[in-house]
Amino acid sequence: ASADVGALTNLENTTLGQAISDLLRESNVTTKTAAISIPSASSLVTVIKLPHTVSEKQFSSVVPLEARKYIPLPISEVSLDWWPMPRRETTEESALAPHEILVTAVHNEILSRYRELAKAASLRADFLEIEIFSNVRSIFGQELGSVLVIDWGASKTRAVVFKHGNVKSFHIINRGAVDLTNNLMHSMSMDFKKAEEIKHTVGLLGTGANRAVSDILRPGVDYILSEVAGVVFNYGKQYNETVNKVVLTGGGALLKGLQEHVAERLRTEVSLADPFAKTENPIFLSETLRSAGPEFSIATGLALRKLKEGV
Q: Which NCBIfam families match (predicted)?
């Protein structure tokens, strides 16, 4: 508990479970069921292609064999799932196109660890879900074009291209919001707490005496955006389509000036995720929830699934 607010920690399940129990008690939450998101960094999400000559009846035997090429572990050690991605066109040409299969895999030890965490918090995990699927559920409605989601986390940033609600491209960048704080901390010789405070106060909009803060933060942001631009380029090359909208989510998305900077760098429409738009809430809380939304996209997505399934 001695870590600064915003700093990365790695707590044991017993400690984290107790913290969750304390939070639920102090919030007067009485539920004993939960839904858990699995970090993208602890999972594999990829799209594989199968020849059009493979029938849907053969998928169950062919997909696990093909998935082995992408999973650096014995298949027996992971939980594998997959979904055929729907074809949006029914032309003769599209009928000859390869089948696209969305494949996910999570190491069984990771799943066991999260189930043990739920048990340590005296909760029952009704389901576990890779976080990017929670994100898409909370963010999107009926978008028809290709949408890029930049999930700006603490230690990692995830770039995901969706179309018609399906994952088309996915990439993890091993830099995040904490790296920006560390850059500021080292460059300006201050402690983490002070650097985090200045980062949130000034962001990329520093002028006058604060311009140096933005000048330090910007290269870290631009490194991440250069990786994101590569994802967009490769997607366009593979599918001959352009990304026509960008949605920012995650706590790092709240950096002042980031939305405008991303729009300038990627030259497209950029918005902040607003997951609470899919919920009913008092009008006087609307602005607060809209501002906090990017930090709660995953949690909201989990809750929406749980409500829909009635579990």
A: pilM
